[in-house]
Each structure stands twice: as C-alpha cells, then as structure tokens.
C-alpha cells in the first residue's frame, strides 16, 4: 500500500507516518522508484502504534516496545505499567467520588466530608502541596 492509502486506513495524516519514520518508530520498505511501500506486516505494526498512541505512550516508548531487542525495553514497559497502575487507581477513586456525589445529601460538595476527603487525597496524590480544607478557612 502507498502512504496515502495507509494514512486513510489508519485515520492519520501522511505527515504523521513520515514523522514516525523519521523518529525510528517504523521503517517502511521502498519501491525501486523510492516510494514508501507498506506491506501487511507494516500495517499491523502501524495499527499497534495508533493503539499505543491512543493509550498515551510516547513515540519513544512505542519505538522501544516495538523493537524486541531494544536496550531498556523491559524497563520502559515496567515504567509505563507503573503509570497505568497509578492512573487506574486515580480513576477508581474518581469513580467512587462520582458515585457518592450522585446521592450526596449536602447542598454543596464542599460541605460534605466525603467529598472534601476525596479532594484532599487527590491533591496530595498528585504531588501538590499537602494541606487540609480546614486550613483554608483560617
């Protein structure tokens, strides 16, 4: 397949495919005339790249993940898994908060101890300064 066909199939612009090639994420074959030629194997790799981008991986992370003999591959995958695990924890906490807010009896969520606890915990876990809502009232 030619670059335009592949870009359309994947839902990306052709310049994106060229950039991925420039940074070493993909290496399409070339025809005798110098045109990029994407075979089924490359198309499958590109679908993985698109999925990884959608999951938040950087191009450098994707390049390392796709090349099984790349130095530091296991460490890069472990680092990304830690980020994913942390994101899952945050999302679960957010889900619990939203479930609570649906039936919260307080007129303002700032008056609810459970809501305030969520805000304090979320702020503390995000690396921001640690203080309680009670300190703000003084």
Walk me through the topology.
Blueprint: H1 3-10, H2 14-22, E1 29-30, E2 36-37, H3 40-54, H4 59-66, H5 73-102, H6 113-125, H7 133-136
Antiparallel strand pairs: 1-2
Write a structural description.
- It contains seven helices and two strands, in the order ααββααααα.
- 63% of the residues lie in helices and 3% in strands.
- It has helices at residues 3-10, 14-22, 40-54, 59-66, 73-102, 113-125, 133-136; strands spanning 29-30, 36-37.
- The radius of gyration is 23 Å and the shape is elongated.
- The protein is mostly helical and 138 residues long.
- It starts with a helix and ends with a helix.
- Helix 5 runs antiparallel to helix 6 (113-125).
- Strands 1-2 form a two-stranded antiparallel ribbon.
- It has two domains: 3-66, Multidrug-efflux Transporter Regulator, Chain: A, Domain 2; 73-136, no CATH class.
- A hairpin with a 5-residue loop joins strand 1 (29-30) and strand 2.
Please name the defining characteristics of this protein.
138 residues, mainly alpha, Multidrug-efflux Transporter Regulator, Chain: A, Domain 2, two-stranded antiparallel sheet
Shape: elongated
Extended strand count = 2
**Which structural class fits the helix and strand makeup?**
mainly alpha
CATH class of the largest domain: Mainly Alpha
